[in-house]
Every structure is written in C-alpha cells, then in structure tokens.
Amino acid sequence: MQNQSASTQPSTQLGKALLCLMTSALLFSIMGVCIRFASQTVDNATVVFFRNAVGLFIFIPMLFKQGLDFIKTDKLWMHTWRSLVGLAAMYGFFYAIANLKLSNAMVFSYSSPIFIPLIAWLFLKEKITKSMIFAAVIGLVGVLFVAKPDQGLLNALSFIGLGACFLSAMAFVTVRALTSTEPPERIVFYFCIFGSLISSIPMFWHWRIFTWHELALLVTAGLLANISQLFMSYAYSLAPAGQIGPMNYIAIIFAGIWGFVFWHELPDLFSIIGICIILFAILLCNPFLQKKLLSRFK
C-alpha cells in the first residue's frame, strides 16, 4: 500500500500541474478577448499601462507584510533591462491582438521559446546544440506562416509580431539570469512598477475619461494576466517544465475558439500549417521530449 501511495503521488502532482497550466492558458486567452474588445475604443498605450498598473496593486499586501526587504536588490540594472524589453514586447503583442486574428496573435506570445536558446547562448553563454538551431529555424518558418496577414508577409503587422516574439524571448532569458539571486515575486514586482512608470508616459498623451465598460475590460485584463502568471508559477513548482510545458500552447486553441465565437474568425490554411510547425519546433526545443523521442529509436 505504501508503494502504491508513493507511486501515485508523482502522477497526482503532475495532474495538478497540468490542470494549473491549462487554467493559466485559459485565463490568458480570456485576457486576449478583453484586450481585443477594449482596443476597439482604447489606444494601445493605455491598455499596456493598465496591464502593469493593475498588477502592481497585487503586491501592496506583500510590501506591508515584508517591508523594504521585499524590494532590496543588487540587480537593479537587470530588472530595468528586463522591464524595457518585456514592455516593448507587450506593446507589440497587444497591438497584434487588436489587429490580427486572436489565435494568430496568441501564437506570437507563445513562440518565444523558439528564440530563447539562441539568445541564451549569445548573452548567457549557455550551450546550444544542433537540434536547438534546427528547431529555431523550423520555428521561424512556422512563425512566418502565421504572421502572414491577408495583405502579405512583408508589412508592419508581421514585423511588429515577430519583433514582439524576439523581445519576449530576450525578457525570458533575463528572467532566467535573475532567478539565480532574485525570488519570482520581486522580479514581477519590478516589472510591474517599471512598466507602469514607463507606460504612463505615452498614455499621458491619450488620457481621457474612460467609460465604466472600458475600465471593466482594462482592469479585468490586468487581473487575468497576473492570475494567469500565478497559476503558471504554481504549475512549474509541482512538475518539471519539460513535462508540462507543451500544455501552455492550448492557449492558442482557446484563442481560436474565442475568435470564432465573438468575431467569426477562422484560421486560413497557412496559419494552421504555421501553428503545427511551431508546435513541432517547440517540442524539439524540449529536452524531456527529446530524450523520450530518442529512447523510442534506440
């Protein structure tokens, strides 16, 4: 009985982790819906500001509880850099949500793992393998398929989406470097506070009185984004990233469903092919799944 209990415990943990990650993906896709509706009348700069400002309020109880020790850091410049590239990626991603099919825009947000090994090799001197390079090239081809709006590939929307994807990867690599000395809560806190301060500047030029409907959408989007991050963090504390990471990409399916329900959007053939290519490339980036695949052919 004890052996059975011990053997079922990891599977229970894995099940909880997968459920948390699926919940995170669902909330993130609903955030995309809120942003799309808000973007019909609210400018992109304001949407980005509320996303960061709402997240900042979540940390107020932690500041009261832990005091100034919560924000003490020796890596202020790294927090600043992470905030700058992360904020730039957010501007691009939210702009894509407002102007592309929701499922296509969501692909840009979840394609950053393709570029992470290359950026980690350049900036952190982490080892890069031939399979990682191959996966990055394959993934880039998939992103180009998805990035193709009806007007063609070489246009502003495509470059904004690709740029957001690359900048998001740079932000993830910086976070990876920060986690060696900084707790996750502090990393998110500095991102929210720097993001709120920086994004308040362009928002100032667009400031006006917002309707209750607009405020509800903006605040809801900010809350969902941060709650989604909490579910994701909890999921990765329960199981290895290699085992559960692919569950993240169910957000693309959720976004496709919302896009059809609210805006009657259907992905074209190129988008479907691109999504499949990206998922395959991301699986190639996954060390856990690489070992599984290699073991099958031994």
Helix percentage range: over 70%
Percentage of β-strand residues: under 5%
- Total helical segments: 14
The largest sheet is: none
Secondary-structure-derived class: mainly alpha
The number of distinct β-strands equals 0
What are the low-pLDDT stretches, counting only 5+ consecutive residues below 50?
A: none
- Element order: H for helix, E for strand: HHHHHHHHHHHHHH
- Number of structural domains: 1
What distance separates the N and C termini?
34 Å
The global form is globular
Average pLDDT, all residues: 80
Rg is 20 Å
What would you note in describing this structure?
The chain is 79% helix and 0% strand. By secondary structure, the protein is mainly alpha-helical. It has one domain (22-296). The chain is globular, with a radius of gyration of 20 Å. The model has no long low-confidence stretch (mean pLDDT 80).
What attributes characterize this protein structure?
79% helix, 298 residues, 14 helices, mainly alpha, 0% strand
